[in-house]
Amino acid sequence: VWNPSWSSANRQVGKVGRVPAGIQRRQLRIVVTGGAGFVGSHLVDKLLARGNNVIVIDNFFTGRKENAMHHFGNPRFELIRHDVVEPILLEVDQIYHLACPASPVHYKYNPIKTIKTNVVGTLNMLGLAKRIGARFLLTSTSEVYGDPLEHPQKETYWGNVNPIGVRSCYDEGKRTAETLTMDYHRGAGVEVRIARIFNTYGPRMCLDDGHVVSNFVSQALRKQPLTVYGNGKQTRSFQYVSDLVDGLVALMENEHVGPFNLGNPGEFTMLELAEVVKETIDSSATIEFNPNTEDDPHKRKPDISKAKELLNWEPKISLREGLPLMVTDFQKRILNDEEGGTL
Ligand code: NAD
Ligand code: UDP
Ligand code: UDP
Fold first, then answer.
1. In this structure, are residues 25 and 11 in contact, taking their beta carbons and an 8 Å threshold?
2. Distances 299 to 94, 99, 199, 265, 270 between C-alpha atoms, Å
3. pLDDT for residue 17
4. pLDDT recorded at residue 8
5. What is the distance in A from the centroid of ligand 1 to the CA of 303?
6. Is the pLDDT of residue 13 over 50?
7. Which end of the chain is more exposed for a tag (fewer CB within 10 A), N or C?
8. Spatial separation of the C-alpha atoms in residues 251 and 259, rounded to whole Å
9. Closest residue (by CA) to atom 4 of ligand 3?
10. What interface predicted TM-score (ipTM) does this complex get?
11. In this model, does residue 342 exceed pLDDT 80?
12. What is the required cofactor set for this protein (predicted)?
């Protein structure tokens, strides 16, 4: 029978009396919710590579079994099809809570489900963390800053968010998830960490998921025009996925609660991004201007001084270095799609 005082979280604060032999030496057991998705699957790769036991919880809304298949047969890996909106009983030391659709197209598809995932799903994972004394990390988002009136954004900025707009299920959902996280920390003594993630790209992103990087890369590879929304002068900062995964692990293992911005401060307009995609994939690619979506933030760029100073973390891979690293993966999957395959 699991005893909460055996968790690594409690070991570190010295609450443990006598720990049964064998358990002390046991590998760290980690849950990754959303571990079959883009970011989650890269995180799982890293945790398994360093010898941890990993349980993935995923309902496969935007995640794919193919992102985890290379671990099937590994006795330290387990995959559970489960929706975090429902309670679950598990015994682990750490919880990385990523489950939530991330691209605007996906999170707007069923906004009620998105906000339930953010609120009820996060509540359940915090309830789980409380019961077993596990450390809990929330993957929040730069969207909590809304259409920011402060630039670049620091963690101290409270944001400029529309509470009743079409993006609210996601940005207000994540703000509530942050509130719940802090309330479980202050009110129930749960050890928590909060990451505010800025736009991230890399292999295994869903094709055609509406994110600008995956759209442009797919379009350039298929010889279709790159769809720039609005006048293309809005800005974003793009981070390569391995940098983010390093940041998440550094945050989980450090003593600071956060929130921490995790992003690459390099700032690009969408027109500049289109140029980099052209340079990387096809210089003859054309641009097509489309109307922009509602409530689209005009600019976004992280101030990452807090993460640099307290986590000793900063991104290493620039956009020009990172983009080519996702092209082979996209090429393979686009070809597979065209041939009616299942990759
Ligand atoms: P993703 O859509 O690829 O992954 C999300 C995963 O969660 C998928 O595997 C999906 O099936 C799963 N999921 C969704 N709802 C679920 C539910 N109710 N129960 C169980 N599983 C569920 O997205 P991602 O880009 O990997 O994002 C991971 C996390 O990082 C998300 O919480 C997202 O909000 C956050 N984030 C990502 C970015 C980014 O640029 N990718 C930026 C900011 C924040
Ligand atoms: N929960 C869970 N697994 C657990 C413990 C709790 O899924 O191991 C869920 C529980 O069903 C509840 C939520 O987490 O919906 C919050 O739990 P908590 O104990 O904080 O609140 P309570 O159950 O007292 O409302
Ligand atoms: N965008 C674009 N073309 C596309 C998809 C998106 O110009 O095909 C724009 C979008 O309007 C936004 C920016 O790219 O201004 C980033 O969008 P994304 O959905 O990638 O991220 P988010 O808005 O969540 O930061």
1. no
2. 34, 26, 12, 12, 10
3. 52
4. 46
5. 23
6. no
7. N
8. 10
9. 212
10. 0.96
11. no
12. NAD(+)
